[in-house]
Structures are given as structure tokens and as C-alpha cells.
Specification:
By secondary structure, the protein is an all-alpha fold. It has 15 helices and two strands. Strands 1-2 form a two-stranded antiparallel ribbon.
Length: 328
């Protein structure tokens, strides 16, 4: 069995055991880490594996969250259906926006995604009849999960944590398989040498659009999971600052390592929680800590750990590069 698969199984087992010795607040915090880890990993498919910096991924997170909330408050509340509908609608929106964005490169791409993200933010803010406007949507339920003859209540924090763990683990596995597929290798080739890929006749725009759509789908899934987790959602979910958090988590963990954004989400969430409990000036301290880590660990914490593991072996410190070169 692939050693990376074994490592992920060990981490999954640890995540399953960890909450058993913790209080409800810390289980709630672990659930937030799981959801943000999926959000950051979805963003990193676009940034770390395709080389496109987007400041609008929070828009698809919010589309998934609002769709899930409306479905759960509707006549047929079902959490699996809410997650599926939220993710699919987010992917559809990402497909339309991506079609207009992927023709641009570098800073122009980032600015266009920011513009569309803020456009969706305004729509959510103003469409009060559906989204609740600035008040958002509250009282989002967690309906029980029906498993054949059995029924599992998801209202308890610990039960919802295990449900979120199962969803996030499955989603991360799919994302990991995508990065190792021909699609993922081609995306890495586009990131490393777009001109060479274009000379080879590869339809670069189609691959970028595919990456944008898939990223939007998993961002939407994370948002659809966030709505019942939080119980209340507001338009702030789609603001560009939420997109910036995904960027910071990815840079903190390391965009060149698949597990980097997951590690970054954990570090960022725990750092924010610890500092906020000590001082009201926590944004300043958290921002300073993140900047220092990025300056002194340009490959992120995950990249540094990978480099330490491979030190002296003569292998690439960024594991994604070898496959990208093969694809080219």
C-alpha cells in the first residue's frame, strides 16, 4: 500500500479517537477545523496545483452554505441532499464565473475573481426575500441521518463531528485522487510551464476551467457543511476576507504539499482561538505570526516538514513537481 495512504489512514484514526477525551467546545472547534481544511484544500487545487490565485472562492462557499440552509429549512430536510445540492449549485456558479475568468492570467485573474466574488456578496446581501439580507438565515436544523432501519441524531456536537469527519475525509480523498490523475498532472504542468503546454496543443483553458469548477464544487460542499454546523449564516461568508483566509491557510501549511492546507487550517484556527482568548487585538497578532511564518518558511509548515523528510535523498522538495514534469 502507498505510504501516503497509510499516513492518511493513521491521521483519520487519530481524528476519530481525539474528540473522545475532549469537551464539547473543543469538539466544536475540531469540527470547524475539518470544514475549513476542506475549504482550503479545495482552494489549493486552483492555487497550488494550477497556479491560479483566486480571491473569490468564498463566494462558492457561501452559495453552498445558503443552498444547504434553505434546503434544510424546507419541507424535505435531509442533510446528505442538502450537501449534494449545495455543492452542485456552487459548481454550476463556478462554471459560469470560471468561463469568464480563466482567459486571464496572474494578477488579472485574481482581480476578476475578486470582482465576481464581491458581486455574489452583493446579491446575497440585497436578496432579502431569499437570503435574509444582512440578517442572514438562522435556526438551521441538523436533521437526523437515516441509515436504512437505523436513525442517527446529528444534533449532538460529537455526532455531527463524526458526520463531518466522514464527509471531509471522503472529499479530501477524491481531491487527492484528482491531483494524481492525468487531469491533476496536466494542471501541474500548466502551473509550471503554461507556454510549453500551450505549444504542445493542450487546451489549457479547458483544464483551467475544470480546475475552477471542481474547486468551486468542493468549496460549496464545505459551505454546505458549515451551515448546519454553525446554525446561523450571514453574508459575511461570501466576503473577500473569507477568501483571504483560505489563501493564508494554504500559504501557512504549504501549497506544494497536498496536506499543507489541512495543516494550515488547523494551525490558523487554533492560533486564532488561543490569541482571541487572551487579547482583543488578536487580528494583529495572528496576522504578524502568519507573515513571519510565510517569510521564514516560504514553502509553509508542510513544505518544511517534507523538505526535512527528503533531506539528503536528492529528491524534489515539492512532491507535485515530478508528476508535472512527466505530464509535460
Amino acid at each position: 500500500m502507498d505510504r501516503s495512504v497509510v499516513a492518511w489512514l493513521v491521521l483519520l484514526a487519530a481524528a476519530a479517537v481525539l474528540p473522545l477525551g475532549l469537551g464539547e467546545f473543543h469538539v466544536h472547534l475540531l469540527t470547524e477545523i475539518l470544514i475549513l481544511a476542506l475549504f482550503a484544500a479545495a482552494f489549493n487545487l486552483l492555487f497550488g496545483y494550477t497556479g491560479l490565485l483566486s480571491f473569490g472562492q468564498a463566494a462558492y462557499f457561501a452559495v453552498g452554505a445558503y443552498t444547504s440552509a434553505l434546503w434544510l429549512k424546507g419541507p424535505w430536510p435531509s442533510l446528505p441532499l442538502a450537501l449534494a445540492v449545495g455543492a452542485l449549485l456552487a459548481a454550476a456558479v463556478a462554471l459560469v464565473v470560471g468561463y469568464l475568468c480563466v482567459r486571464r492570467d496572474e494578477i488579472y485573474f485574481a482581480m476578476v475573481t475578486l470582482a465576481f466574488g464581491q458581486l455574489i456578496f452583493v446579491v446575497i446581501w440585497r436578496w432579502r426575500e431569499v437570503t435574509g439580507g444582512s440578517d442572514g438565515i438562522g435556526g438551521i436544523p441538523r436533521p437526523p441521518l437515516h441509515l436504512g432501519l437505523a436513525e442517527v441524531a446529528l444534533a449532538p456536537t460529537l455526532h455531527f463531528y463524526y458526520f463531518a469527519l466522514a464527509v471531509v475525509a471522503a472529499a479530501l480523498y477524491v481531491l487527492w485522487r484528482i491531483t494524481r490523475s492525468p487531469l491533476g498532472l496536466t494542471l501541474q504542468a500548466v502551473r509550471d510551464n503554461a507556454r510549453r503546454v500551450d505549444y504542445l496543443g493542450v487546451p489549457m483553458g479547458r483544464y483551467r476551467l475544470a480546475a475552477f469548477t471542481v474547486s468551486g464544487l468542493f468549496c460549496g460542499l464545505a459551505g454546505a457543511l458549515f451551515a448546519p454546523y454553525q446554525g446561523t449564516i450571514t453574508p459575511d461568508l461570501s466576503d473577500w476576507m473569507r477568501s483571504a483566509e483560505a489563501v493564508m491557510m494554504t500559504l501557512l501549511g504549504g501549497p506544494q504539499v497536498f496536506g499543507g492546507p489541512v495543516l494550515g487550517a488547523a494551525l490558523m484556527t487554533l492560533l486564532k482561538d488561543f490569541v482571541a482568548s487572551e487579547t482583543e487585538y488578536w487580528p494583529l497578532l495572528v496576522g504578524t505570526a502568519v507573515v513571519l511564518l510565510v517569510l521564514f518558511l516560504p514553502g509553509g509548515v508542510g513544505g518544511a516538514l517534507w523538505a526535512m523528510k527528503k533531506q539528503g535523498t536528492g529528491q524534489e522538495t515539492a512532491p507535485a513537481r515530478a508528476g508535472a514534469e512527466e505530464a509535460v
